[in-house]
Design a protein that fits this description.
Blueprint: H1 5-14, E1 48-49, E2 58-65, H2 71-80, E3 85-88, H3 90-93, H4 97-105, E4 109-112, H5 125-143, E5 149-150, H6 159-167, E6 172-174, E7 178-180, E8 186-188, E9 200-203, H7 213-226, E10 230-231
Parallel strand pairs: 1-6, 2-3, 2-9, 2-10, 3-4, 5-6, 7-9
Antiparallel strand pairs: 7-8
Helix pairs in contact: 5-6
Length: about 240
């Protein structure tokens, strides 16, 4: 069943795709995993990642849903040549796909975040597949692309999610180790606090959030640069 847009936005703003402070995203045990193949699966299951092993001094900026369409953000991505990853939900983006076409034109990548933003864990295979493959079809019709990366809403998933994602052409399920909170600080799902090379960072977005997406990103870039890091293209490392 399709969630009303108001309910979707409420879930984004109150719970956030990155969950509450200190909340660990993931499966039942809350850990990013690298499953090989489920019994009866037709494709190898995609790995679940919140950090990328790399010697490069890079972190990866990811943005969810598509509720916040700050026009200045397009200029920031263009000027800084930021290879950000946008995980889009169709029912949240609504008529705003043109904004993301402009972002894609200046270097952002477009990835899958389901049609309607449900919590997938525990749903039957058919429902999970419809959410993931349905958004693959939407993005293919809008942009002519078939995303390889998928982020489950709220960071929750199960083995059925991985089966459905694999059958929809997904090659990696992307969580996050760090998340930008409402105060502009970073919270971490595991390990020692502090950005380190290979971290995937979630930047929550919402129509009424303040400061703006551009301002929040600029502050985050200062912290990244202070650590001697830069923004990398996630798709090049997965």
């Amino acid at each position: 069943m399709r969630r009303p847009a108001a309910a979707v936005l409420c879930a984004v703003l109150l719970a956030g795709c990155a969950g509450g402070p200190g909340e660990r995203p993931g499966a039942a045990d809350g850990r990013a995993q690298d499953p090989a193949r489920a019994e009866g699966a037709t494709h190898p299951l995609p790995p679940v990642v919140d950090h990328v092993p790399t010697r490069e001094p890079v972190v990866f900026l990811t943005y969810d849903d598509g509720a916040e369409r700050d026009p200045r953000f397009v200029g920031l991505v263009r000027e800084r040549r930021l290879p950000v990853s946008m995980f889009l939900t169709d029912s949240v983006v609504g008529p705003g796909y043109g904004h993301f076409a402009r972002l894609r034109a200046v270097g952002a990548s477009i990835q899958n975040h389901t049609l309607d933003h449900p919590a997938l864990r525990g749903l039957p295979y058919a429902g999970q597949r419809a959410e993931i493959c349905g958004q693959q079809h939407k993005l293919r019709s809008r942009f002519g692309i078939s995303p390889r990366l998928f982020r489950p809403p709220y960071g929750t998933y199960d083995r059925t999610t991985l089966r459905a994602a694999a059958d929809c052409g997904i090659t990696a399920v992307v969580l996050w180790r760090a998340s930008l909170n409402a105060e502009g600080g970073l919270t971490y799902t595991r390990g020692e606090p502090g950005l380190r090379p290979g971290d995937i960072v979630s930047v929550p977005a919402g129509e009424t959030m303040s400061p703006s997406l551009t301002e929040r990103t600029v502050r985050l870039l200062r912290e990244i640069e202070r650590k001697g890091l830069r923004v990398g293209r996630l798709e090049d490392h997965l």
